[in-house]
Specification:
This protein is mainly α. The chain has six helices and two strands; from the N terminus they run ααααββαα. It is 61% helix and 4% strand. Strand 1 and strand 2 form a beta hairpin. Helix 3 runs parallel beside helix 4. The two termini are 27 Å apart. Pfam families: DUF1572.
Length: 185
């Protein structure tokens, strides 16, 4: 049975991997969209890719700035404004500039967390969570938004969409390639 430090280190590595995976998936979807397509609203009441990006940026900044010492819902955050549809390509360009720095706040935090930190208490909207629980909550949150961005990208790009995972009808070929790489390592 692994000791608690080894387990905590494995969990932190898993969180780093998961967050990086969902950022990369989001990046892959967003890269296929023109700035105009970032503003596409699929149906009344739905969110454009720009709105989802705007929300994730706000969430990353709020949750992970001073993560261990302040509430994850910062008083300066204007969450409702994150869901207001941007109305210009200038706004999209601003979001594109803010995207990576917002994620970097999280990645910098993950690089500093220690195994013992996973059981520390942090708050989100005044509600206490362990660091472990707060990170898992955010993994699930960003996974859902990455999925939304992929779905919107597929809908917007149609047949011009470049697959970000195993292409249809190519599962056996993909599995064989994975196994061949594993055999050569």
């Amino acid at each position: 049975m692994p000791d608690s430090t080894a387990l905590a280190e494995a969990l932190l590595a898993s969180f780093r991997h998961s967050f990086r995976t969902y950022k990369n998936l989001s990046d892959g979807a967003l890269a296929q969209l023109s700035p105009e397509e970032w503003l596409h609203v699929a149906a009344p009441g739905s969110n454009s890719p720009a709105v989802i990006v705007q929300h994730v940026i706000g969430n990353l900044r709020s949750r992970f700035t001073d993560f261990l010492t302040t509430d994850g819902e910062k008083p300066t955050r204007q969450r409702d404004q994150e869901f207001v549809q941007p109305d210009s390509l200038t706004a999209v360009a601003t979001l594109q500039q803010q995207w990576n720095p917002a994620w970097q706040i999280l990645f910098d935090l993950l690089d500093t967390l220690q195994p013992a930190d996973l059981l520390r208490t942090v708050t989100i909207r005044g509600e206490a969570h362990t660091v472990l629980t707060a990170l898992q909550r955010q993994v699930a949150h960003y996974a859902s938004h990455a999925g939304q961005l992929v779905l919107l990208g597929k809908q917007i790009r149609g047949l011009n969409w470049q697959n970000l995972s195993v292409p249809r009808n190519q599962s056996e070929l993909f599995t064989a390639a994975v196994q061949a790489r594993a055999n050569h390592s």
